[in-house]
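Onboarding guide, step 5: your first structure request.
Type a short instruction followed by the sequence, for example:

Predict the 3D structure of this protein.
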Amino acid sequence: MQATQTAALTAFLIAAVAAIMSIREIIRLHKEPLPDYVKSVVEQSEDQTACQRFLVREYTIAYLFFLFTALCIAGSFLIPFGFMDLLVQIGLIAGVLWLVSVRFRQRRFIKQEESK
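The system replies with structure tokens like these:
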């Protein structure tokens, strides 16, 4: 019984830390200076303003999915409903797929070197 409670408390604390980290990253995205993973792509783009707006918006959506997932994990300990596990899986899969899609969609902003 004690091991189960310790594991549940550990998972709850990890979910709380993940929620805090998601919030911090969203705040960091919307303040200057931009994070390195955004700044490096913006510097390579032709239309830097549009690229920056796109990346900030899309990464914010991805981090919101991760925040949703962390809150569902934490909430599953407070409100034990069966569908919370499903919400956790949906949030995690959606967040990962969104991040991968952003990486592919950001290519349209990067300057294309003209081949000779």
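Each response can be followed by summary notes, for example: The first helix runs from residue 2 to 29.
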